[in-house]
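Recall from the previous chapter that SMILES is a line notation for molecules. Here it describes magnesium ion.
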Amino acid sequence: MAIKTKIICFANNKGGSGKSTTCSSVGYAMAQAGKKVLLVDCDGQMNLTLSCFGEAEALELSGGEQNLSAAVRRHLPAEAVTAKTPYEGLWMIPASPALSRIEEELTGAAERAFVLRDFLSGIKEAGVYHYILIDAPPTLGLWVMNIMCASDRLVIPVEASPWGLFGLANMLEFYAKAKAEAAGLKLLGIVVTKADERKKYFHQTVDTLRDLPDVHLFSTVIHSDSRVEWAQENSQPVIAYAKNSRAAKEYIQLTKEIMKYAGR
Ligand SMILES: Nc1ncnc2c1ncn2[C@@H]1O[C@H](COP(=O)(O)OP(=O)(O)O)[C@@H](O)[C@H]1O
Ligand SMILES: [Mg+2]
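With both inputs in hand, we obtain:
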């Protein structure tokens, strides 16, 4: 029986909120749970690509034709630019620095908010993957509108820092705009990242998020953990790098929550 693919994007216009880390960790945990997962790196900074591939390999992928911007520009099918990661059950459509120009390239396109949705539609309908996870850049423009319009679900990682909530109102407004374009899109929830309970602002952040009307707050909180950065240096998702670390265990827990709610 064909799989019903769910597309989930991780977005927040604030940089450093944990989008790429959450995307790679959740993807890895889903794959470990026996799911087939495709990661799509939509950020020209290539952090998601680099979370699974070493620098040399990532540069090779981004320099050639096997990456997202080349595929969108040349109307290649998603399958043609999908790379197998070193991990069972986990595939990747890599990014390239050329993605930084995608915004201007899209302005002239027909149905310009749906270019990414159309690019992914074949692979979604083929029912090959249980989940397609999209990592978004820290912007709120036409490209992120494309990302949201291509997605069934949105997860917003929010950093538990004094500035973590900065811009969240814009983000939620943007989500409402995207939902008006693509009715199938649903905000799955907000996840708090880089938490440190000793800090006053951690509690302030959680209290503020809890009070948001109609927004689900995931009960799993991702704590600040240096193993996340070490894993990154090693070009590995944190669960692959240090499976007993606090962040790894929390990401496995968060993934269970996401899989439970994503189907609804
Ligand atoms: N739980 C965590 N503990 C410690 N550092 C983290 C954690 N999550 C992310 N980081 C670090 O914070 C930085 C930003 O994270 P990243 O996932 O790249 O955010 P974004 O994609 O939103 O810009 C990275 O250097 C990453 O290693
Ligand atoms: Mg990122």
